[in-house]
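Milestone 3.1: sequence recovery, worked example.
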């Protein structure tokens, strides 16, 4: 006997191709439960019928489940690699890093990097730019308040050091001194000029719905935006096709480097892009 939520997952997969079963069910169920209530429905079967018959409700649903999902230290093992290997290497070459979280959603990603830098280089004056196409999610990012599920990968020690816990709502707000290290800006990766001279670009779980052509252009633009030795960090299910022909060296799965020295392949079509 399947529950109404399991029925919903099966039907939604057939309708949209999105496999909600691949998302952590507690978080997703709560998120969908609030969407369902906001739509005036009382259970998942009614909600599915609404989605089936109302294209704009379906669009809102798809946007909600696919677009703004984020959490602190998403793919914790990869953030572990960033902390233990890549950031120390970058810091050994430069004392002030320029970092861009492109498609930062609610800010969990750039704040995760800000926490790592605070631990690895507490006196450093680094620049962390965080951009997204969605102005409303950036408002949330600036507030920096998160549900318990968003901070599930944050250690107790970091929770105590970097967050204030509000027990009445069980929410966690990033402390001001970390919040102030991140600059949030609206930016469309498919349209706007890219910042330059970057040491690290995080673009994770953003391009999944972009065409192959758009992705290829974007990865090339990222390459041009990186300093020599700089790194591109992609999502846990992503890879840069043709990375070598753009000029990247794959240093490990999900981390691509613009080579340090003469071996760098310079772009023939390099253009000067204004800073954000
Ligand atoms: C799934 S979230 C990823 C958040 C974070 N990078 C992570 O991996 O946890 C994808 C974000 O990409 C943003 N996005 C989608 N299209 C974009 C575009 N053309 N330019 C900039 N951001 C975009 C969405 O608004 C959304 O906040």
């Amino acid at each position: 006997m399947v529950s109404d939520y399991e029925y919903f997952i099966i039907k939604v997969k057939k309708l949209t191709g999105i496999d909600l079963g691949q998302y952590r069910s507690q978080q997703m169920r709560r998120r969908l439960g609030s969407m369902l209530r906001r739509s005036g429905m009382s259970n998942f079967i009614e909600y599915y019928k609404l989605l089936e018959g109302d294209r704009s409700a379906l669009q809102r649903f798809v946007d909600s489940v696919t677009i703004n999902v984020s959490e602190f230290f998403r793919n914790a093992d990869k953030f572990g690699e960033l902390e233990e290997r890549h950031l120390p290497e970058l810091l050994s070459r430069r004392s002030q890093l320029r970092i861009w979280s492109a498609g930062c959603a609610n800010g969990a990603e750039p704040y995760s990097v800000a926490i790592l830098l605070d631990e690895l280089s507490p006196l450093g004056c680094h620049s962390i730019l965080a951009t997204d196409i969605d102005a409303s999610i950036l408002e949330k990012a600036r507030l920096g308040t998160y549900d318990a599920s968003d901070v599930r990968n944050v250690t107790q020690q970091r929770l105590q050091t970097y967050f204030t816990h509000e027990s009445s709502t069980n929410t966690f707000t990033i402390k001001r001194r970390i919040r102030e290290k991140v600059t949030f800006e609206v930016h469309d990766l498919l349209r706007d000029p890219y910042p330059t001279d970057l040491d690290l670009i995080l673009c994770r779980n953003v391009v999944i719905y972009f065409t192959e052509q758009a992705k290829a252009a974007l990865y090339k633009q990222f390459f041009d935006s990186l300093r020599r030795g700089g790194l591109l960090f992609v999502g846990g299910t992503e890879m840069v096709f043709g990375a070598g022909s753009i000029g990247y060296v794959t240093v490990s799965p999900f981390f691509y480097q613009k080579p340090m020295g003469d071996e760098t392949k310079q772009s023939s079509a390099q253009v000067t892009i204004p800073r954000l």
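Residues 76-257 form a domain with the Rossmann fold fold (CATH 3.40.50.150). Strands lie at 98-102, 127-132, 145-147, 163-166, 171-174, 182-186, 198-203, 226-234, 249-252, 255-257.
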